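**User:** I keep going back and forth on a fold encoding question. It is easy to fool oneself when nobody else works the same problem. Could you pick a protein and write out its sequence and tokenised fold? Could you put it straight underneath, so I can go through it closely?

**Assistant:**
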Amino acid sequence: MEDLLKRRFFYDNSFAIYGGVTGLFDFGPMGCAMKTNMLNLWRKHFIIEEGMLEVECSMLTPEPVLKASGHVERFADLMVKDLKTGECFRADHLLEAHLEKLLKDKKAPVTPEKREEYEQVMREVDNFDKETLDQKLKLYDVKSPITGNALSEPIEFNLMFSTSIGPTGQIPGFLRPETAQGIFVNFKRLLEFNQGKLPFAAAQIGNSFRNEISPRSGLLRVREFCMAEIEHFVDPSDKNQPKFSQVADTVVTLYSAENQLSGKASVQMSLGEAVSKGIIANNVLGYFMARIYLYCMKIGVKHEKFRFRQHLDNEMAHYACDCWDAETKTSYGWVECVGCADRSCYDLKQHTKATKVAMVAEKKLPEPKIIEVIEAQPQKGTVGKAFKKDAKSVMEFLSNFNECDVEELESALKSKGEIGRASCRERV
């Protein structure tokens, strides 16, 4: 099929006459027509029908933005190297492919117990940390699939393409790894455009870039790709979608975290029942899962080859309340197409902390409410005299205190009467 699509120029490797670059592709006339039709339908199905606010943001992103969002520190995959040739492989994919090969080996059939063990590892491989993955690679004696050479221990590799902005090279930046951050940093403007009212949704269609360790599977894992992303902002104390009743009877295949861990199969269930049983966190999430399902059916995905898989606790982002991946069954197995998560207000809080610009919405209360707030209010003059050249660092440090830090500081002052100059400098 892949060869046929390339012969008819639906798509082909970029710069093919120069030998091509792995993970980069060009779309031909038919590929462009198909992609345009899908995006036009996506825009109509989500943006127009749901009254969303569309934005188009820069793909070139300054480092502080992605540092605040956590991408600089955590946007990484684990890779291993061929110890002789230096060729790199994504560790979890290598383990998964090795176990698949063992399961399909007719010359050395595996026992039912081993089959169950391998399948359990394959289900959980995406969630393994560095140490667990290293143990499994050694346990199953995984070698380089090309040379058969031994492999290094897994190491982290950041997936973002780095660059510098401007002729001096002094402004570091990255090609965006996702479109969401452009929406988050424009939250205040979007809220004003929506007359300060919640809920509202913003959407963006555009290219993102990820420096994949070992691109594979045709167009499924590439280094430049088009994303269509939505961020729905809602009052956290009122996660209710009035239109949920319109889709509550929609029956989908759900593969819950509980069923994955217990080795049970996925189940058919209405979204209304899943929300009422607490399998899906709230009906806002349930509503968008229904809309995703309906869109996928419109573009030709078959119902029996579609499911929602819930993230396990150890693969879910620490700030997320619930997360489901829309997956389709292909010749490559189950493939994630869409992620649908209740990611709370983590990103807005991080950008507020980094910029000191409040990314919050306000609502009128029926009556005034008095709330006790604990915050550090350092006296610049006193800090300057006490710390002299270190005063600026101390002020910056204190300005980043959260409520727990302030309470801890207050407790130490009450019990000891002072905070030692040395200990404060150590924390800075």
About this structure: The two ends are 59 Å apart (CA to CA).
